Write a sequence for this structure.
């Protein structure tokens, strides 16, 4: 089990091995059950500005920076880029609506998985397109001792957000590791695409309403239906890693 996907990953990328030393986690929809709140806030904020946007579009755009999401809507609706003032106005409104939604509980079983990974002496990074200070601050409150500022990549650290590979390439640079020494845990098509383009083994956990085939088509090496399923299968997955050369 899982050996075929690992060997195919090695072959396609022409890597010498697959021996993970770090796990890169996305945040929204992976660590926090916050995507429902984000989707609702995006729809409401853009509607107030006369811009049509659906919850499905919010999930499909998950992982983009706020600026990129707003710009994409303006291009689609008005055929032009949003101004900086328009971006800031809409993002402030969206952030205010999100804060009022209170949708930011932890994804079930993610703490168990994180503690297991920590006990296995694997490094833990977070790679997010979010610029929400409240969620970033909540990492220490909800996962004390598991995440550290020098092992984070946020919207403030990159020029290009997901699906561009820059966020994961930045995390790879921070880690000092090789691409075959990392596993990514994502939940969104654009995040999966970003990680895949960076040449990293990508596990997609389908915590949202999208068809799992979208995650596979975006480049996921493995797709799980829940964080519990990934937690339950973690040891079986780990047993197929190659021993270090």
């Amino acid at each position: 089990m899982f050996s075929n996907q690992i060997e195919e990953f090695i072959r396609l990328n022409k890597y010498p091995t697959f021996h993970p030393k770090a796990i890169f986690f996305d945040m929204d929809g992976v660590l926090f059950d916050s995507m429902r709140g984000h989707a609702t806030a995006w729809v409401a904020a853009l509607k107030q500005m006369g811009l049509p946007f659906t919850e499905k579009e919010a999930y499909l755009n998950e992982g983009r920076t706020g600026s990129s999401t707003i710009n994409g809507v303006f291009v689609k609706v008005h055929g032009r880029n949003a101004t900086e003032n328009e971006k800031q106005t809409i993002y402030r409104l969206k952030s205010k609506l999100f804060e009022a939604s209170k949708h930011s509980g932890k994804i079930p079983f993610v703490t168990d998985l994180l503690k297991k990974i920590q006990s296995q002496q694997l490094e833990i990074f977070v790679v997010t397109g979010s610029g929400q200070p409240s969620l970033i601050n909540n990492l220490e409150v909800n996962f004390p001792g598991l995440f550290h500022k020098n092992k984070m990549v946020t919207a403030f650290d990159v020029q290009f957000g997901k699906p561009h590979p820059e966020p994961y390439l930045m995390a790879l640079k921070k880690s000092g590791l090789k691409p075959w020494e990392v596993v990514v845990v994502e939940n969104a098509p654009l995040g999966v695409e970003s990680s895949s383009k960076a040449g990293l083994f990508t596990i997609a956990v389908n915590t949202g309403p999208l068809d799992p085939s979208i995650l596979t088509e975006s480049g996921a090496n493995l797709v799980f239906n829940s964080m519990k399923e990934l937690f339950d299968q973690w040891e079986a997955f780990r047993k197929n890693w190659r021993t270090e050369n």
In short: The mean pLDDT is 92. Strands lie at 22-25, 32-33, 105-106, 123-127, 152-153, 182-186, 201-205, 222-224. The chain has eleven helices and eight strands.
